[in-house]
Design a protein that fits this description.
- The protein has about 325 residues and is of the alpha/beta class.
- It folds into two domains: about 5-120 and about 240-305, FAD/NAD(P)-binding domain; about 125-235, FAD/NAD(P)-binding domain.
- It is about 25% helix and about 25% strand.
- Strands 1, 2, 3, 4, 5, 6 and 16 form a seven-stranded mixed beta sheet that branches. Strands 10-9-8-14 form a four-stranded parallel beta sheet, with helices on one face.
- It is elongated.
Length: about 325
């Protein structure tokens, strides 16, 4: 597409809800764009989400993706399978190097780029249980489904400020029976952290996990320190790995974890490079990612013919 000198209005990297919604807006703005999808959206892990308005009975992540793809394809758009392995910025365009599933390479040129590559949850190190989060044995989003876990016995896998914060969030919102599992990490608490845990009666188990019991596609018992602990729900609070390498390679500003920092139009500190969805620092929610997409796509449409350099009339 870029090899013949053709320049797209926008290249969207990522085929999750944020990327596909960006495409929907650009299609309706009659813009020329392409969507590159590596086929590994985090949204696919969601068994049922009850936070998407209009789906009163809940909707799975797979169904969200299928419906959003179908919606975009109604406008004649196609989602190209592949992975963007490199991104360069020139004065009037971006050049992306795309590798397809067979190892073939091509270059795509676009005036603007939207990164919607998302993030990946850091999996807990559980014995004989790889990919527990992806398999749905361990949950990762109490904002999404904590309501369904209310008043149950809940374990949070985590340590440090993030693990403590998630345990407190669940305890103050959904359940008075919360245990923080550090998987063998020693939890060094300052007085404020200790007070927060004490206030919500959050228990701490620092022993490493020795074995697990599975019942009806869920982890029902965890054996640690020679004792058996039974829980109704396990959440992982080990954080995320942001797929922001392309943006960082261009010098985009980011937080210490790699989450991209954007302006009110979801533009990164690299002019013409936008970000939407989980890759953006902030709240990781599908509706937020869709909001990012609407903001970015509208700004791109309104500024597409303007230069992207740091000039007074730049984007």
């Amino acid at each position: 597409m870029g090899s013949n000198g053709d320049i797209l209005d926008c290249l969207i990297i990522g085929g999750g809800p944020a990327g596909l919604t960006t495409g929907l807006y650009l299609a309706r703005f009659k813009r020329r764009f392409a969507v590159i999808d590596s086929g590994t959206p985090r949204a696919a892990w969601i068994p049922t989400s009850h936070n998407i308005p209009v789906f009163a009975d809940g909707i799975s992540g797979q169904e969200i993706l299928a419906r959003t793809r179908t919606n975009l394809e109604q406008y004649g758009a196609t989602i190209q399978s592949g992975r963007v392995t490199g991104l360069q910025k020139q004065p009037d365009r971006f050049i992306a190097v795309v590798e397809d599933n067979d190892g073939g390479m091509e270059q795509i040129a676009a005036r603007r780029v939207v990164l919607a590559t998302g993030s990946v949850d850091i999996e807990p190190d559980l014995p004989d249980m790889p990919n527990a989060v992806q398999r749905g044995l361990v949950r990762y989003c109490p904002i999404c489904d904590g309501y369904e876990s209310r008043d149950r016995k809940i374990a949070v896998i985590g340590y440090g400020a993030h693990g403590i914060g998630e345990a407190v969030f669940i305890a103050r919102t959904y359940s008075r029976d919360v245990t923080l599992l550090t998987l063998g990490q020693v939890l060094e608490l300052n007085p404020e952290q200790q007070a927060r845990l004490d206030e919500h009666d959050i228990k701490i188990v620092e022993s490493p996990v020795e074995s697990l019991e599975i019942e009806n596609d869920r982890i029902s018992a965890v054996h640690m320190g020679g004792k058996e602990h039974r829980f109704d729900v396990l959440y992982s609070a080990l954080g995320l790995k942001y797929r922001s390498d392309l943006a960082i390679s261009l010098g985009a500003e980011h937080d210490p974890s790699g989450g991209l920092i954007v302006d009110s139009h979801c533009q990164t500190t690299v002019k013409g490079l936008y970000a939407a969805g989980d890759i953006v620092r902030g709240l990781d929610q599908i509706v937020v990612g869709m909001g990012h997409a609407a903001l970015a796509a509208t700004h791109i449409h309104n500024h597409c013919e303007l230069p992207t350099e740091d000039e007074p009339d730049g984007a």
